[in-house]
Design brief:
about 160 residues; alpha+beta; Alpha-D-Glucose-1,6-Bisphosphate, Chain A, domain 4; 7-stranded antiparallel sheet; 4 helices; 7 strands; about 35% helix
Length: about 160
Amino acid sequence: MAIEDIAFEADYPQPPEVVWRAIATHEGLSSWLMENDFQEARVGAEFQFRDRPRPFWNGICDCKVVEAEPGRKLVLLWNFKQDAQPTTVSWTLTPRPGGGTHLAFRHSGFHGFMGRIMKAGMQRGWEGMVRRTIPFVAERIAEGKPIPPRAEVKAYGKRAPQAAR
């Protein structure tokens, strides 16, 4: 049985091309999500996210880019080498009238008992990333500052207010 998707939306003051740099580059993803060997947002590109192991997860997530429209949409097949039923993660960027970006995030394709565990373990984390850490990284990029290191982004995410919904 399919399980409801994880879905969040947020509005950021930065234009889509700036938000894209936060969600679709090695440096951007490393700062707010996980260390990775992502090279480019190109359909068919495969890469790994790496983090500390947790219960029910070895700390490695093999991903494949299944859709990439620069400045607009990035879709990944999530953990496609280890899971019999991999999930899909997508970010859709839409320019807002008057400037800024609307981001729609979706993690879909959860199934069965392990899907419920996976969703329960990821929902709060994804929400914090969409509402706090992605906008923090995008703001730094827009200001022309270096993308902040992961430790700084994590610390900010714990104390920052949520982005507008």
